[in-house]
Please model this.
Amino acid sequence: MSKESSCLWVPKKHGQRTIVLADKSRLRDKELEVQTDANYIFVPLVRSPTEEEISLFRNEVSQVRVKSCMFQMRRKQHKTIDDALAGLLSSDLLASLPKALDVVGDIAIIEIPPELRENEKLIGEAILKTHRNIKTVLSKAGSVSGTYRLRGFKIIAGEPRTLTVHKEYGCRYQVDVAKAYFSPRLSHEHERVGSLVGEDETVVDMFAGVGPFSVLIGKKHPSVKVYALDINPEAFVFLKKNVLLNRVQDNVVPLFGDARQIVRERLAGVANRVIMNLPESAIEFASTACAALKPNGGVLHFYGFVRLPSSMEALRNCFAAEVEKAGRRVERFLSVKAVRETGPYEQQVVLDAFVS
Model:
């Protein structure tokens, strides 16, 4: 819903100061959204300011002007999704609401249980009301599958798009969540691995996606060479964009294609460190990761799933056996830990191994 209102029109660099002044003078209309364009900010007012008030503003912000504009009404803010849905859903259904959602940029992704699917649009609108930074709400439609690790989504509220820009540890990533795999739940893992990289290393990121490991490492360590590989053509387009967006083109090299072929033809024996974030099938690439390591060895960051009744110990043993088949040896495991819960009785885990 929109409404016409008087407003203060100032260059963006004076925007925050103007809002503060408008609040102090109780002139800003807080029921309307502040608007911006490429160069200016428009602060809605409850009434037209007097000449005296305009003079006071101009003493602080010389370029301020008064005009009339159309403004969007601000969404009413609710503290929680439950608050926003109170009176709209029964207590039994409210108890079934998911307790967590993934946020990628300004897109929220939620898994709607079967008993709530006929109310998914209500839930989507409730998320918009309780999270001002969210512009689109998607519900998961199926599990991650296929070579490109994609899942289906359904738009249940907000802007009809799956493209966004995600910010993480000082890096920005363009990503279309329907075309390229990206998990915000791995943000701490991206930072953890990045902090372990030593200066002047060479890193091979075998399944780079849109670049969350590669770009962060390249940005933190300008002396490090990172080879970022991916076979998904859509993800690779975003990978190249993100390398440029974060200005790491001097030390991050995107390579398109199957990791096996790229390592065999271009990257055999170059790496001090290899990242293997393809938990569904990374074990099948153990020999390729070993081939990428320098002759004197290096570190493999191997990601996999542990599903009961299996165990981390079983995964360790399986990984070590595959490394031995490749003619290498796990000298020691530097770290073995769960990264996140991925389902009932299932965890994603990471094995950091020094391989000789």
Remarks:
- The CA atoms of residues 341 and 347 lie 5 Å apart.
- The mean pLDDT is 92.
